[in-house]
Fold this sequence. Notes:
The protein has 8 helices and 10 strands. By secondary structure, the chain is an alpha/beta fold.
Amino acid sequence: MYSGMVAASGFFELAQDGLPDTVIILGPNHTGYGSALSLMRKGIWQTPFGGVEIDMELADVILSKTDIIDVDETAHKFEHSIEVQLPFLQYLYGDKFKFIPICFLTQDYHSAIEVGNTLIEALKNRNALVIASSDMTHYESAMQAKAKDYQALNAITALDAYQFYATVETQNMTICGYAPITALITYVKGLNAKAKLLSYHNSGDTSGDYSSVVGYASLIFKK
């Protein structure tokens, strides 16, 4: 109920952009389970809208391009950051797409850049969509969160992966999925895409409490 409105602004844009064959979803690991970088290469994820199949063929292509991603189901067992995207995608596309989940326990810069570059190679000439799932600043006042978040958002819209990562680190920002976002910036920059900020809100806009909020943003990248 806090982040759904912001997420929906991004999915509204996707609804006008056609059907992808595969969606790669990058998300942080909140639980600590599993490998540093974990991919599930087969199976079906169930949501209230039904099942979504993992694209095993493309997962194997991704794995063949890098040695830093492990096949590990453990990291995904209790993690919400990736699965929360699936009902939106199912609402748009029904059962006509597959997906690949990649979960980031490690948040180091070089690994994130390698994942982004791996996706550039693996998704070449494919009808694929990449999503990075993350909240923005956690548990600061709305004013403080917005000031910090817009520093990060400006780096994202400039497609400056290093500046984004450095901003998060130097400002001690609590963006949970900053490595997935760094990987996504790297990927879309390699496609000569352009970024656009669609929506920014915080949990106070729903709860009415602006003293301690979580920030949410939705951005879209288009070639």
